[in-house]
Amino acid sequence: MRPLTDTLPKPLLRAGNQMLIEYHLHNLAQAGFLEIIINHAYLGHMIEAALGDGQRYSVHITYSKETSVLETAGGIANALPLLTNGAANQPFLVVNADIYVQMDYATLLPALKRLHSTPENDLAHLILVDNPPHHPAGDFFLANDRITTSGHATLTYSGIGAYHPILFNQVTPGVATKLSPLLRHAISAKKVTGEYFSGTWMDIGTPERLQWLDKQFSDKK
Questions:
Q1: Nearest-CA neighbor of 140 among 129, 151, 153, 149?
Q2: Which tens digit of pLDDT belongs to each residue from 15-41?
Q3: Distance (Å, rounded) from C-alpha 100 to C-alpha 118?
Q4: pLDDT digits (tens, 9 = 90+) for 173-187
Q5: What is the CA radius of gyration of the chain?
Q6: Out of 31, 74, 140, 155, which could bridge 70 as a Cys pair, Cβ 3.0 to 4.6 Å?
Q7: What residue segments make up the domains of the chain, in order of their start?
Q8: Which residue blocks in the chain are alpha helix, DSSP H?
C-alpha cells in the first residue's frame, strides 16, 4: 500500500467517508460485539489516537501492542489474555482490518457458541469467498460445511473467522508465527468448519483497490 502507508497505518486509510476499520467497528457494534481488541504494530499509536476507547462507535476498545512483527497467529496469541478475558475455553471472532465486507457479523454467533461447547471437535470456523483476481489459486475447499485442503473448486479465506484459543496452544509467546500452518494442521485433523459468503468482500491490498472502493462510495452519492 505504499506510499499511502508511509505515514499512515492501513486500517486508517479512507474509502468513502470512513476509515477502513470504522466500517468493521460499526458492523461489529450492530451485531452485538461490544468488546473489541485491536492488535497493532506499525504506527499503532496513530490507531489508538484515531479510535480512542471506542465510545463513539458504541463499543469498548482495548489495544494489544506488538513490540515486533508477530505475524497473524503470533499477534493473536499475544492478544489471547485480552481476547478470552482469562477464560481458557472462550472462543473469539477475528476480522482483518484491511478488508471491506458487507456482512452481518451476528451470523457468526452460532459458530462461536458451537466452538465454546465442543472444542474437542472443532477449533475454528472460517468465512470463505470467491477467489479475487489477484489470488486465483484460492486457499481452501469447502465440503459439507467443513474446510478441506483438496476438492474441486478452491475458495479464498476472507480474513474473518471464529477461533478457539486451543488452536494457539503451540504458539510461543513473542515469536512470529503464521496462521496458515496452524489452520492446515487443524484442517487435516478435521477440526475446521466453514461457510461461503457470497456478498460484497474486498481485500484492500493496493492503492488501486482502495481507489476503486472509494469510487464505489462516490458513485452512490
A1: 149
A2: 988 999 999 999 999 999 999 999 998
A3: 31
A4: 889 999 999 999 999
A5: 17
A6: 74
A7: 4-220
A8: 20-31, 44-51, 71-83, 109-117, 179-188, 207-220
Average pLDDT, the chain: 92
> How many angstroms separate the CA atoms of 8 and 17, rounded?
17
Residue with cell 496513530: 46
Q: What cell numbers appear for 34 in the block?
A: 461490544
Please tell me the distance from the alpha carbon of residue 194 to that of residue 125, in angstroms, as a whole number. 5
| pLDDT for residue 71 | 94
SS3 state of residue 191: coil
| Alpha-carbon gap, residue 104 to 24, rounded angstroms | 10
Between the alpha carbon of residue 186 and those of residues 119, 151, 217, the distances in Å are: 12, 17, 39
Q: How confident is the model at residue 108 (pLDDT cuts 50, 70, 90)?
A: very high
DSSP 167: G
